[in-house]
Amino acid sequence: MTCAGAVASEFESPLTTGWARTIISCAEGWVLERKLTAILCADVFGYSRLMGEDEEATHRTLTSHRKVIDGLIEQHHGRFVNSAGDSVLAEFAVSSTRSNAPSRSRPH
Q1: I need a surface site. Which of 18, 25, 72, 78 has the fewest CB within 10 A?
Q2: What is the arrangement of strands in the sheet containing 87-93, beginning at the earlier edge strand?
Q3: What is the pTM of this model?
C-alpha cells in the first residue's frame, strides 16, 4: 500500500470524539496532523446598505464591534484566521468533551 492510499483510507472513516487528534505518518517522511475544530464565519447583515447610507459611521461601528469579536475569539482560546471587509473567520480547538467556542446562536 502506498502512503497516499493509507491516508485516503483514514479519511474515509467517520470521525468520533476518540479521534480528536490523529497523527498519520508515512515511510516517505511526511506527517499529517488531523484535529477537530469549530469554525466561526461571520459578516455584517446589510453591510453594503449601511455603507451606502453612512460610510464613516458604519466604519466606526464595524471597528468597535471587531474589537469585541476579537476579544471574544481570544477569550475562548480561538485563533483569528482572516478578515475581508465586514467578515471574520476564526477557528476554535474542540476537546473531546466540550467546545471552547461561544455557544450563542444567531437569532432567527
Answers
A1: 18
A2: 37-42, 87-93, 78-84
A3: 0.58
> Nearest Cα to 21, choosing from 78, 96, 97?
96
Mean pLDDT of the chain: 75
> How buried is 73 (Cβ within 10 angstroms: 0-12 exposed, 13-18 middle, 19+ buried)?
buried
In order, the DSSP letters of 36-92 are -EEEEEE--TTHHHHHHH-HHHHHHHHHHHHHHHHHHHHHTTEEEEEEETTEEEEEE
Segments in the chain below pLDDT 70 = 1-32, 96-108
Nearest to 17 by CA among 105, 86, 103, 99: 99
**Are the CB atoms for 57 and 32 separated by under 8 Å?**
no
